[in-house]
Each structure stands twice: as structure tokens, then as C-alpha cells.
Amino acid sequence: MTTAGEIMHAGAECIGDQQTLADAARIMRERDVGALPICGENQKLLGILTDRDIVLKCVAEGHDPSTVLAVDLAVGRPMVVEEDEDAEQVLRIMEQHLVRRLPVINHPDHKLVGMISEADIARHLPQERVAEFVTTICAE
Fold it and tell me: What residues does the CBS domain cover (predicted)?
């Protein structure tokens, strides 16, 4: 059984909820990632911030990314999986909720330990299952 911990990109780092979107953009560029988890007090996961969010919900709306805070875009409750979760269950969750990135937490601390992206899935799972996943995610 392949687990979330085996396919995730380890060492995911949060953007603080009081950091700006400009800070987030710089971090994304430096780390060559398209999304960052947003964490508040005690590393509590508040949401996921994507490069697309910055463009569509800030820049395109005429807002200044150097003044808009990450917490301003942290809406809803992010989906998460535990690191010992079966990879097939991870895919079902991502497909059901149409998410392309999924934070991975440890048990029992519930601390962020990594992220799973489409690229992680493509690198670690059988091609047939990857094709099915991409078809489902892109159909919406």
C-alpha cells in the first residue's frame, strides 16, 4: 500500500496569515511552487493560497498585493489527509472535491508535513490511475 507520506512533497512551508500576497508570490518563485498553505497561530492550517488566487482575486481586482494579507484569501476549510492515508483514498478525496493540491498532516499532532500535487501523483502512481485522475479533475 502506497501512502500519502510516500507520494507527498515533504517539507511544505506555510505562509503566515499576516504576510502579504507579495510575500507569498516571492516565496512561490523562490521555491518554484504554485501554492502555499496559509497557517495561523500554532501552525493551524487556514487555507491554501495559489498563484492563480493572487492574480484573479487580488491583481485583477485592482488590489495591491503588497497590502493584501494571505488571511484575506483563506476561505472555507481546507481538505487535508494524514500521512498514513492510503494513496487511493487521497485520489478519491481530490477527485470528489476537485482539488489539485492537498496538504498532508501527521498524527496525532495534526501538523503540516507536506503537500500532494498533481506532479507528485504523476511521479508515484501508475499511469492508468494518473490518467483517470486527470480526466476527473479536468472534466469540471
Answer: 8-66, 74-132
